[in-house]
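Input:
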Amino acid sequence: MNMEIDLQRRKALKTGGGVGLLAIFGALGLLQSGVALAEWNKTAFSAKTMDDALNALGVIVPENGAASIQLTVPEIAENGSVVPVTVASTLADVEQITIFVDKNPNVLAANFTLPQGTEAYITTRVKMGQTANVIALVKAGGKFYRTSKEVKVTAGGCGG
Amino acid sequence: MGKPMKIRAAVKDGVTEVKILMQHEMETGLRKEADGTLVPAWFITEVKAQYQGRTVLETQFGQSVSKNPYLLFRFKGGAAGETITVSWVDNKGDTRSDEVTIAAN
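Output:
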């Protein structure tokens, strides 16, 4: 009986400690992409606004990535539940690619960490509840770049 | 244990392209049944691809990723006949791991 309680307490302490540490690192902006991926970034994925999501990812002010990021999305999505998104970049040393949908309830869709040797070219599919901007964030050489494109959604993809 | 993934990998000009189709509901936790009850969130949170014991892609997903997630990426290296392992974990702790042999293109 006592042992069981003790184990649960340990588990709680362990979990709490981990999250706390992550929050501290995040707040200091020290969160390396490699470290961040060790644990699913709950704060970032629960963010309701772009500002909150960027903060949770440790992004201060991203540079304009319109020329250096190739974001491919359909202009009109007849089905918001399956919107193909391709992000590619000509920047050197791309470490991370992140995809957001600014009007979804949770704005952060996917975050990719690219080890050396993995090319800056990712395709995936996202859900869009309504017409919104798809935003691509690329981290290269320690700097963040951002670009976006609007997708007109004629039928939303979040059910209900 | 999750349902099997469909994975294709092919090497061309020294670059391996990997295409992954996962089978997963990817419930947002915001959808309601006809009777008004919320369908609990159930989605893949992490996907990892490994080649020769080396991680070639690390992914974190949120609820906005489509049902049956699709992923395409490319990495330098890889040779026909070698193996790539892809594994995912979802928010309920379920996991799935599948292997694919790289094909010549």
